[in-house]
């Protein structure tokens, strides 16, 4: 009951603000007055508005319903431009509701959520920004963003101007747009508050993401440059739209044609050649560098981070030159494999990742690069 009382009080304050703005419309408006009238009616208002997630869910659901009712009203009266504007705002309000729902489920703030000011900011041009499409992927779930098709940018002033020009009198078009402007003003007022309130949350999330990237860069399995590129491509890290803001590192690493050296024991080899160095290539595989994403989280196998198919090359009398078999990686560091050389010949191998030789220098360069960009 308290929730509805607060919302009712908020609505009353906003209604009073609307009365204060009732003088925005001149007695005989012309198309040249549209921008001035809109700037007056969209002027910022203050008052108690929804702050808890439950209150906001109700608010955005109510806003979406308001825009839907207005769109239906404009459709019946033949005011196509205002109908299009209402439908665009309805899509934004529905997405804001969905983003609030994700926030309740995951506890993570979507960096570019539709309940924040970036989706409702119109600026001097009286145009709302485009909302990029989002796919319902794992990474988006971690970021707290709901999926959506693209919501295009839209000019408020152009659509109201069309309503003014298509009406018998410009005042009729402006009066028809008035409830839409009031609803939009209310949406913007809450979105601005949300943007201020989540700054501290986003700051903490950014710190957490930065720490995750540090772990990915310095503690994950060292990869060759082409593997880093494939991993980025696999997880769409080359997408420059950044609908989630500052992204998290990929949850897994793609292993591809990864050369390394190791020591291998073949019991049936001749004396003196049973333990010998070997060269191997991980042809294809994956590695879950972060413990939270691994196959076995709560068992003694929780340290198993990756698996790949390896091809080995060895030089032992009476043993085939090439072998093949699975290679397991533990805690991004230790590698153990079993290789088959044909004719019931097996080898047990302990691997050494060659990229470790360059890790210290690599880490130093990356840290210097990050410091230079701050």
UniProtKB/TrEMBL annotation:
This is Secreted protein. It comes from the Bacteria. It comes from Marinobacter adhaerens. Residues 1-20 form the signal peptide. Keywords: Signal.
